[in-house]
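Morning F.,

Quick status update on the modeling queue. The single chain you submitted on Monday has been processed. Sequence for confirmation:
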Amino acid sequence: MFVVDHKNLTLSFNEFHDVSYKDMPQYGEYCLLELKNGDYTAGGWHPSGNGHSAAGFFLRGTADSVDSEDVARWHSLDRYDLTASLEEEGVNWINLGPEEEGSRSVQFESFKSFADRKNPKEEQFCLLIMKAGSLAAGRWNKWRSEAGGYFIYSSALASHSWDKVWAWTPLSSDEIFAMEEEREKEKRLEKKLNKNPYTDPDLFRYGTDIKVYYEKALEKLREEYPWATLTMMRKETPVWQIAPLHGKYVFGQISENYYDDSDVVTPWTEGTTADEFIDFLCRYTRDKVEHSDPKKKFRLGTDINAYLDKAFDNVKKDYRWLEKGMLEKTWHYDIREVDGDLEFVRSFRNENEYSVVDAESSEKFIEYLEYDYQSAALQANEIVGSYAPSFGHIELHGWNLESYVFYRLKSGDYKVSVTAGDRVAGGSRDFFILPQCFEAKTYEEFLNRYLEIVPDYSFGLGKEELLPDTKLKKFLGY
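Structure tokens below.
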């Protein structure tokens, strides 16, 4: 490890290149930048056009760049390895490039280390000395749930992890960092205002316990829906709470700010009195209550096997190889009392944790079961052959078709798997080709039936592409 004391270290940058001379770095080269306003930052060079001019930008992160017109000079960070100097005791000054008379030089000092439990401020852009001896830069973002963080330096959140950095020092403040500082200032002010929040007597006539308002709304709902319960009402999410906001209590919905784990309170603004809020709660939760009638939901009773048997029989008609044990390998269903109400619940294998299945009727729940039975059946049926039709570029509602494959299953049946995505996300879906499709006498008639299951406008390939494909025709048995 390096023996130099980072606290007493100064880096002197002496080989600046003047942008006005159109003397620019190599594409992608990461550079220390002196801006025309005297500030210092860093970024990777991305020229525009043919790359033979000074036009372009220095990339600092996703949607974070500096236009070359704002840059006076640049100094490479990529071309230096400080390992030899940092391994020599007593070094407190390192020149990066020869210190010549008349040359532009700038010094950076006051380096800090994570080993000293020092972190940059959020969104602060910093000059970095890496543990590998190289130089770098990036914008600090702390991890949300644990100690440490990372320095973002390019697009797609490309970053240097904190544990790869030996020492760091802040560069100049910029707009992004200034916005973060202002946001932190607002958070401190909000915390101060909310220490002793004001309570509007008209708005909180019945106190500051949200349960009281839900219970009063429940009394009104039961006039129309006798089966209504608080549990049913709270299925309409997000639920309403009472929280301080800008120094006073409000009825609000609270969500998490993913950016920094803080709470975001969205206040209710449709009235000014407690009774108006109670009426609003009735309207807000009415739909959930109306569709939670236990008589409709548990039309087949409260024995889960009645629903499992019904769904199994429905799926077995087409998935002839289906066995009940196939579903049990992954999902277990039950009917349990949750917060005083009976609910359909699902757990993974034999685990104790379960989730509530939000089905408003027995028919909806059976449809839910049918889908899981179908998925389990397809997973259990071994693939014995495949054929992938060729296709060019196909865009599907903003996603690109990546894969479209027909599979022959051990049972003699067929399925098709479609995959689509973009540069950051994607997904796959399997479709069972129902036996009724193969009752068609001709390949064209088969496609007519098949495309009702996997329509071209949703999944990319249609009759125009599939009908001339003689290999697919033969693979499907026509």
